[in-house]
Amino acid sequence: MADIKVDNVRKVFGKTVANRNVSLTISDREFMVLLGPSGCGKTTLLRGIAGLEQIDAGRIHIGGRDVTDLPPRQRRIAMVFQSYAVFPHLTVYENIAFGLRMQRLPDSEVKRRVQAAADLLQIANLLDRYPAQVSGGQRQRVAVARAIAVQAEVLLMDEPLSNLDALLRLEMRAELKRLMQEVKSTVVYVTHDQVEALSLGDRIAVMKDGAILQCDTPLKVYDYPATDFVGGFIGNPPMNFLAGRVNGDAVTAGGVDLPLPVAVRARLSNGQVRLGIRAENIEASAMPVKGALTGKVLVIEPLGSHNLLTVQVGEECVKVNTHADSVFHPGQTIRLKLASDKIRWLNRESGQAIG
To answer: Homologous superfamily of 4-226 in CATH?
Structure first.
């Protein structure tokens, strides 16, 4: 068992609070993604789990053991860094074998594990080369192979794909997902890329200002954001938000009355509310549509499979996905029909989800 329990962890650097009493439970063999913008505390939390940062308060358990005061070498973990951290003076083989030699394993076992890891990462033909003789993507594979070879209970990854170009990152993301399904380790993966988080993680912990705002499956985080920050951070384009005013059983937003669920109305403390909706849940039309918002097209971005419109609705801008063959033009007045079952209601002041 290699479950991880982070209990009320706090870490402060001078006057900056990097982790604010963070609690998180990660199941055995789960792929957990820590997601958030730069400076949100995700890497600090990862380094705390690894033992590379001494936490100021709280406890950390790995596999039922309290490892809070143990050095990294006794935590039975492996780590992949953003900068690869491969040794330039060692061959690919010796880089992968480094952790195994530190464990003083027999040469035969070292050879077996290195070969197995190299085969998994598809770099067996590079074992005699030096890091300077391979590409950036191949160096990243070497770093992952080195971590896998030691067969640690927990694999920690700190933005391992961020230094790769877009096409190679896409390829490595798919390879990494396939690889983690075979290795079956408990994985904690740090990234600021929400596409990586959605495609890789079993669950995503979205962080801001040192705290976890929401921890759930990718689909739940995407469809049911706990706050406006989560909705605005997850998704490409991010979730649209419109200010609304409660009017009896409806909410007036963008000059149109929209039905307000009873459960939401019961939890409103004032007449103000915010609604969020994804770009793909808005239908654009050049013709008048009952119950649709009226807006003016500002920008059209052809993206191949679809077009992305930026539409001015009152004082706010809304992103809308349309078919690639749709015919709209800048300056055109159009109607936007919102899918009522896809509207997410939020508290206007706190940004917290309602209902």
So the answer is: P-loop containing nucleotide triphosphate hydrolases (3.40.50.300)
